Amino acid sequence: MKILVADYIYTPNGFVENQAVAFDDLIREINTLETLLKNHPQAELIRTEPHSVIYPGFINTHVHLEFSANKTSLEYGSFMPWLDSVIEHRDDLMGACNNAIMQRECEEMMYSGITTFGAISSFGNELEVCEKTPQRVVFFNELIGSNAIYADMLYGDFMERVKASQSCKPSSHITPAVAIHSPYSVHPIILQKAINIAKQNKLPLSAHFLESQAEREWLVSGSGELKSFFEKYFNTSTPVTNIKEFMHAFDTYPTHFTHCVQATKEELKHLTDKGHSIAHCPRSNRYLGCGRLKIEELDLPFSVATDGLSSNDSLSIFDELRAALMLHNDIPIQDLATQLLQTVTEDAAEILHLNCGKIEADRWADFAVVTLPEAPKREEEIALWSILYTKQVSEVYIEGEKYV
Ligand code: BEZ
Ligand code: FE2
Fold first, then answer.
1. Structural domain ending residue among the three candidates 352, 373, 394
2. What is the DSSP letter of 186?
3. How many domains does the chain have?
4. Confidence band (pLDDT; 50, 70, 90) for 353?
């Protein structure tokens, strides 16, 4: 047993002062230090630095590790030039992305306090790194392929990857999962098969959805910049599905939809009614010129996530939260800071069905300790100061073991 003590603990009831946490692999008790020492006399006492806050480990629900070699290869600014540059540089970027690079990015996430991440995997290349990293990983095997001729072959490859992720040792903390690349890139027949696999095996399910104006235009009217893209690379000029058909395919299984920046109010209402959630990637959306997700109008759970280095400049969750504070500049900053921290803890855990994200008894003992530069003067500002000042967290625990 260990006892971790700090000036503040972030709990489902807000920031509490003068308390400590007793834990082994699970959180056992939250109480005053005095009481905990009495109840657990053999426990190892760990005192955090002054002005520290214990948070549940942060959860980044959507990242692409396979693109970690990108620095300046991909074109930012607008979605279609970016997608063209992905096609042009994909092989080079994949070739340059080795285990050492991906491992370094897992560490980068760890130093920002991320103890769980959702890895979107196109090829399964990052499975070994994800098995080795101390973090918990929801391993989203991605299905892609709009051409019916290749659909069966691509589906077969997808199923092999699903099986590989299902046979990881329990100690690797891998949760197998399914990701659908997007409505424009997945044929409806294999889409339905993959959704059924997720449903039958109770695997978390995710899909990129309505990220750009180009995607919307293609799905609605078969025109726009994606038309020339499909003519050039795939020799087709009609979309394989439309927004309604794609969205309704997920009606009976709650799904984590990424982006949704270009979804209408009606479409968002449908997602809400069907129990879905959104992964909101503020920097990715800004860098690819996709627009701003109106989070103030959402009525469904959402997480804040980094996306991959294919559309970002770091995998730090605090860099992402700072960007979210700037992007959503009309929302009162203290309220927004408080909400953002909830999206990467409690809400993200609920979305991915993980027993973490909250500091309360019987949850997994995953923590990130944030140390503020001085004592906060007003409790209601701790969320904001945490986001603004944290470049790296000062301690990280996963399943009760210290990693930072
Ligand atoms: C496709 O298979 O249709 C596809 C793949 C990558 C990007 C866009 C479409
Ligand atoms: Fe993504």
1. 352
2. B
3. 2
4. very high
| Ligand with minimal distance to 258 CA | 2
One domain, residues 84 and 12: no
pLDDT in tens, 214-230: 999 999 999 999 999 99
Distance 307 CA to ligand 2 centre (A): 5
- What per-residue confidence (pLDDT) applies to 304? 99
260 shares a domain with 366: no
Structure-block tokens of residue 238: 């009609």
Burial class, 78, CB count within 10 angstroms (exposed 0-12 / middle 13-18 / buried 19+): middle
Atom 8 (ligand 1) nearest CA: 185
Boundaries of domain holding 322: 58-352
* Whether 381 is catalytic: no
- For residues 344 and 223, membership in a common domain is answered with yes
Give the closest ligand to the alpha carbon of residue 186.
Answer: 1
Question: What confidence score (pLDDT) does residue 151 get?
Answer: 94
Are 118 and 138 contacting, i.e. CB atoms less than 8 angstroms apart? yes
Q: What is the pTM of this model?
A: 0.98
Work out whether strand 395-398 and strand 401-402 pair parallel, antiparallel, or are unpaired.
antiparallel
| Chain centre distance of CA 297 | 21
Domain holding 375: CATH number? 2.30.40.10
- Whether residues 120 and 43 fall in one domain: no
* pLDDT number for residue 326: 98
C-alpha 399 – ligand 2 centre gap (Å): 28
Which atom from ligand 1 is nearest to the alpha carbon of 154? Answer: 2
Compute the average pLDDT of residues 251-264: 98
Taking CA atoms only, the protein residue closest to ligand 1 atom 9 is 185
Assess whether 277 and 321 both reside in one domain.
Answer: yes
